[in-house]
């Protein structure tokens, strides 16, 4: 039997099942589900509504920033400043509201500050050719220092006339008893997922990560897109900062310390490749969820909390190991 | 009328004369081999046609109109496309995504403007069929052969309906079987009435697919003759300088 050229061209080599089985996000999701089933059976305290509420809410801060980080990683970059930007955003919000301004003004000020930081990172990386690692490492130090300057390194826990509205924004549960941070996370994930899959902008992110030179030659506005992506990353950290402020009800200048590493871990566990060109919004959520489930389960199982780092670090290395195996297979 | 006409084109970088008083014209639907040793001025000449460099002297005319290009985008607007030696493809994207990179098609989904995957897959498939290349629009470039990659890069030029395609060493880094595939792609382009300039070191490729060969040596044109009236031995002599000029 001979196949015509048209049949060959029309043939789909992959169906949804093979795509699914090759997806790292899918296997991490399976791991999470398996862990949850095991924990529900092994402990009395895991499958309680209070614990589930806690887990889902704790996931959100990492997950929201991981959404932005995933976009940065897709273009082959890295953003180490997110933890400090979260702190700066929280502190700008807190100081503004403490000074007597309303919630709206505080939120706008915090978001604009975040965007400015991201824009600064982006311009240095895209237009002046600085390595993103170094620029954002510098910003990690600068942003936290600015937060200390803004607050004189004090704890802010009174947020002026809109104090209660802020706490409700971050700590409430406006819809079906689901914690507000979870709602924000789901909303943002849907937006990021849509942008990555269905827009030219998203397509161009993958192109830049795959072959920046090719993207430039085909007329993709590479520099502009890079600046936009670093701004989005900082914005996601800023949003997480605002929500976290409302949830905690107090801001210190050490919130978000070391968070950049946890966020990068979430993105990588969820399938983003630090080489660039690979990553999804769902992956960011799933990666963040796995980290939180590990953290939570170690506590419930009575394992010393000092082991957390070892387990999470092990997951990162296993995730990268899977990617390496795939690379070796495809290069055969 | 000639598609492209070069008159007394020269280019010098400081004291170095890279291209010296070169004139030729390209007709619609012909394949011209551009040959010469390293440093003969091939790349400089091509870069002038591609809009990377302005000529120091001389003029270019495209379909009778004077042509001055300051940037590569200008060349593309005039219907001149380059297939780069490294092909400028993204390994992590599908063939269709690469063909449409920077020229994506959209459709409306309610109030949202979204990528039109269906149309892009279908049209890319049509172009591959037209090129008679066994390339599947949904496959990732990463998993493709050298010949299929060339097909994707060439499909890009079909999309813009280029009149002149410059191919920079398309057969330099691929296997013998794939060379035949690439040469047939060039013939497909010619069948569509596209003019192809094939820059190559490989004598057999030029002699199997080109209608005419232009030889450069030390920045000067030393031969411009029909393949039928020449021979690989003669062209080798012209490239090395054993034969002064014909």
Q: Find the biggest chain interface.
A: A-B, 29 and 36 residues
Strand content of chain B: 25-35%
Q: Find the CATH topology of the domain at 4-89 and 160-240 in chain B.
A: Rossmann fold
Provide the helix percentage of chain A.
over 70%
- CATH homologous superfamily (4th level) name of the domain at 4-89 and 160-240 in chain B: P-loop containing nucleotide triphosphate hydrolases
GO molecular function, one term (chain A): transmembrane transporter activity
GO cellular component, one term (chain A): plasma membrane
Pfam families (chain A): BPD_transp_2 (PF02653)
Keywords (chain A): Cell inner membrane, Cell membrane, Membrane, Transmembrane, Transmembrane helix, Transport
Task: Describe the model.
The complex is a heterodimer of chains A (332) and B (246). In chain A, helix 4 (49-74) packs antiparallel against helix 12, helix 9 packs across helix 10 (200-210) and helix 13 packs across helix 15. The model of chain A has no long low-confidence stretch (mean pLDDT 88). Chain A has helices spanning 5-10, 16-22, 24-42, 49-74, 82-98, 103-126, 132-151, 163-171, 180-198, 200-210, 212-217, 222-248, 259-269, 281-300, 308-331. Chain A has one domain: ABC transporter involved in vitamin B12 uptake, BtuC. Chain A is globular. Helices cover 74% and strands 0% of the residues of chain A. The longest helix of chain A is centred in the last third of the chain and has 27 residues, at 222-248. Chain B is of the alpha/beta class and 246 residues long. Chain B has a domain at 4-89 and 160-240: Rossmann fold (3-Layer(aba) Sandwich), CATH 3.40.50.300. Chain B has helices spanning 42-49, 72-77, 95-99, 117-130, 146-159, 176-191, 203-209, 232-240; strands at 4-13, 16-26, 31-35, 57-62, 65-67, 80-83, 106-109, 112-115, 164-168, 195-199, 212-217, 220-226. In chain B, the strands form three sheets. Chain B has a six-stranded mixed beta sheet, sandwiched between helices. In chain B, strands 2-1-4-5 form a four-stranded antiparallel beta sheet, covered by helices on one side. Chain B has a two-stranded antiparallel sheet with strand order 7-8. In chain B, helix 5 runs parallel beside helix 6. At the A-B interface, helix 1, helix 10 and helix 11 of A face strand 8 and helix 4 of B.
């Amino acid at each position: 039997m001979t196949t015509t050229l048209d049949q060959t061209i029309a043939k789909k080599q992959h169906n949804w099942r093979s795509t699914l089985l090759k997806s790292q996000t899918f296997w991490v999701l399976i791991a999470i589900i398996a862990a949850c089933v095991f924990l529900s059976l092994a402990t009395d305290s895991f499958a309680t509504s209070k614990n589930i509420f806690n887990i889902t809410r704790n996931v959100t801060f990492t997950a929201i920033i991981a959404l932005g980080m995933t976009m940065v990683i897709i273009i082959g970059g890295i953003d180490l400043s997110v933890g400090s930007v979260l702190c700066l955003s929280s502190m700008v919000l807190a100081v503004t509201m403490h000074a007597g301004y309303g919630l709206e003004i505080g939120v706008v000020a915090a978001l604009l500050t975040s965007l400015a930081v991201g824009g600064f990172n982006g311009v240095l990386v895209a237009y002046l050719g600085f390595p993103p690692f170094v620029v954002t490492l510098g910003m990690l130090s600068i942003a936290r220092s600015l937060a200390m300057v803004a607050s004189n390194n004090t704890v802010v826990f009174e947020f002026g006339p809109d104090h209660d509205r802020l706490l409700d924004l971050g700590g409430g549960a406006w819809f079906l008893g689901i914690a507000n941070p979870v709602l924000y996370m789901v909303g943002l994930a849907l937006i990021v997922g849509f942008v990555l899959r269905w827009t030219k902008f998203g397509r161009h992110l993958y192109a830049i990560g795959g072959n920046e030179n090719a993207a430039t030659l085909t007329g993709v506005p590479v520099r502009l897109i890079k600046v936009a992506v670093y701004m989005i990353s900082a914005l996601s950290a800023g949003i997480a900062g605002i929500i976290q402020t409302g949830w905690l009800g107090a801001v210190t200048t050490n919130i978000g310390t070391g968070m950049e590493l946890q966020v990068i871990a979430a993105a990588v566990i969820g399938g983003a490749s630090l080489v660039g060109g690979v990553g999804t919004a769902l992956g960011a959520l799933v990666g963040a969820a796995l980290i939180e489930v590990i953290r939570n389960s170690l506590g419930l199982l009575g394992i010393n909390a000092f082991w957390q780092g070892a387990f999470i670090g092990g997951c990162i290395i296993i995730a990268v190991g899977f990617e390496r195996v795939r690379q070796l297979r495809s290069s055969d | 009328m000639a598609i492209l006409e070069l008159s007394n084109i020269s280019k010098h970088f400081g004291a170095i004369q890279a291209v010296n008083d070169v004139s030729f014209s390209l007709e619609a639907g012909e394949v011209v081999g551009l040959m010469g040793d390293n440093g003969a001025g091939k790349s400089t000449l091509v870069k002038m046609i591609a809009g990377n460099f302005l000529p120091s002297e001389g003029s270019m005319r495209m379909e009778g109109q004077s042509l001055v290009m300051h940037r590569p985008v200008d060349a593309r607007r005039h219907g001149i496309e380059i297939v780069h030696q490294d092909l400028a493809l993204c390994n992590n994207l599908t063939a269709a995504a690469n063909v449409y990179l920077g020229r994506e098609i959209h459709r409306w989904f309610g109030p949202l403007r979204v990528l039109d995957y269906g149309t892009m897959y279908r049209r890319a498939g049509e172009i591959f069929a037209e090129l008679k290349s066994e390339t599947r629009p949904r496959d990732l470039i990463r998993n493709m052969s050298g010949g299929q990659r060339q097909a994707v890069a060439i499909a890009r030029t079909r999309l813009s309906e280029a009149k002149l395609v410059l191919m920079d060493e398309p057969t330099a880094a691929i296997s013998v079987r794939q060379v035949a595939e690439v040469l047939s792609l060039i013939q497909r382009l010619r069948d569509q009435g596209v003019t192809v300039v094939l820059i190559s070191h490989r004598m057999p490729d030029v002699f199997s697919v080109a209608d005419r060969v232009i030889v450069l040596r030390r920045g000067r044109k030393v031969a411009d003759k029909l393949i039928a009236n020449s021979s690989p031995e003669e062209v080798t002599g012209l490239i090395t300088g054993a034969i002064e000029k014909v």
